[in-house]
Amino acid sequence: MTTATDRFGLAGPVIEISGLHKSFGERPVLKGIDLTVNAGDVVCVIGPSGSGKSTLLRCVNLLEQPTAGSIRLLGVEVTDPDVDIDQVRTHVGMVFQSFNLFPHKTVLGNLTLAQRKVLGRSEAEASAVAMRNLEHVGLADRAESYPAQLSGGQQQRVAIARSLSMDPAMMLFDEPTSALDPELVGDVLAVMRDLAESGMTMMVVTHEMAFAREVGDRVVFMDDGQIMEEGPAAQVIGAPTTERARVFLERVLHPTAVDDSQLGQTEPARPGDPDFRPPDGTGHVPLTVR
Ligand SMILES: Nc1ncnc2c1ncn2[C@@H]1O[C@H](COP(=O)(O)OP(=O)(O)O)[C@@H](O)[C@H]1O
Ligand SMILES: [Mg+2]
Hints:
It is built from 11 helices and 10 strands. By secondary structure, it is of the alpha/beta class. It starts with a helix and ends in a 27-residue tail after the last helix. The structure holds adenosine-5'-diphosphate and magnesium ion.
């Protein structure tokens, strides 16, 4: 069996994006993105809706064809017309907001399908890989369940296990917890944190600032198709240098904050008040779930 290392050189960055432009018709959506993700890096991408975050991930996964610029994955220029896109894509795991599980297949069936069809694994081998990955996401006991019998959080963990079963060299996450009820978010983030700790190279579009701070090696703030800020999480989230990032972070970290003048309030909220937020401003997500 050939592995990622047979087909790709291992030296150098895992993801190298340079001068990436993407337009839909006349409309520019990515306006010159440069970004390098090294092996084992976790890069969190934040930014307002419509800033191009999904388009960026979709270009990396070749679901969108870049208009200009280059993308190298494990040293291979994937925008080269001679490259076998399907083969490259098998090395890139992608998890979306919607889980896209087959409703008429069991969890195990969902995890073995692409392994057999795309990687040519036997039923036995695919099942063994699937069970190992279900263990990792804490759902080995649900292998025979159907997606509808699982919570949204469990379905998303199944979707992550399905991606991992393809042995990807990198994982892309596009707002994986945005569709979940708040009490289910922590379990999914915990799985992603474990994955990051295991050394997986990850690009994560997320609004979960606590996750970005705790797990992200770097945070990228995008606005209007450009990277406006990039750096360690504590720097970009804790001390953004651009006004646009400051405004965005204020909205995300304090979604219920209203101008004092609108409320006629003069007293700041204190511990115990419903509006009180601790001064570190790390957001609201309970990450430590186990
Ligand atoms: N397939 C498409 N065709 C036309 N416009 C698109 C398409 N996909 C995205 N866009 C536009 O590109 C912009 C960026 O979208 P997107 O990458 O989804 O932003 P984000 O993920 O940051 O919310 C949006 O204005 C969106 O309407
Ligand atoms: Mg998006």
